[in-house]
Design goal:
Blueprint (H helix, E strand, L loop, with lengths): L2 H12 L11 H9 L4 H16 L2 H12 L9 H6 L3 H16 L13 H10 L2 H24 L5 H20 L1
Helix pairs in contact: 1-7, 1-9, 3-9, 7-8, 8-9
Length: about 180
């Protein structure tokens, strides 16, 4: 797994509702983070892990719900931030589903295709051409979620900052090649 795939995979894992089982794999997570050469990304992920490890599990769950659910700080459904429940949102969801289908990656879930953990999971496994397409469509929305999280002092913004930094690297490398 290359560095960008690791970052997206970790973000996908930690942006889902907290599971106690994650604590069992933290040594492996730390080992993966240690292999990331970009010091900025490394620092963001390490900062998030500090938050995760230093926060009691019930508080992690409560903060997650207050951040992402029940009219929290933001939503993890990227197109909702832009279109709310309009027809344009439906069209954006269809476009995203088409990218997923074209990639031949299996996405078995009850979630809408704009669910951020699912998008990050996709980015961790898809071919670069599909990664580029998704980032061109949704990087601004990811940046908006990050802005909302940072303005509300949510430690989840460290995950988004890591993915944004990774995305910039990928986009820059794509333009150079």
């Amino acid at each position: 797994m290359n560095p960008h795939q690791k970052v997206y995979k970790l973000a996908s894992l930690f942006l889902q509702y907290p599971q106690e089982e994650i604590n069992e794999i933290l040594p492996d997570v730390k080992a993966e983070i240690a292999t990331i050469e970009n010091q900025t990304i490394h620092a963001y992920l390490t900062s998030f892990l500090y938050y995760w490890e230093s926060t009691p599990f019930d508080v992690l769950c409560e903060k997650y719900v207050n951040t992402f659910d029940y009219h929290g700080v933001t939503t993890l459904y990227l197109t909702y931030n832009v279109f709310k429940d309009s027809r344009e949102r439906g069209e954006a969801l269809v476009k995203l589903r088409e990218i997923f289908t074209d990639s031949d990656l299996i996405t078995e879930t009850d979630e809408l295709p704009d669910y951020l953990p699912m998008i990050f999971e996709f980015l961790s496994a898809a071919d670069n051409k599909y990664v580029q397409r998704v980032l061109k469509l949704h990087l601004n929305s990811i940046m908006k979620v990050n802005k909302d999280l940072a303005e509300n002092d949510s430690d989840y913004h460290f995950l988004l900052k890591a993915t944004i930094e990774t995305s910039y690297e990928l986009m820059k490398n794509a333009k150079v090649s």
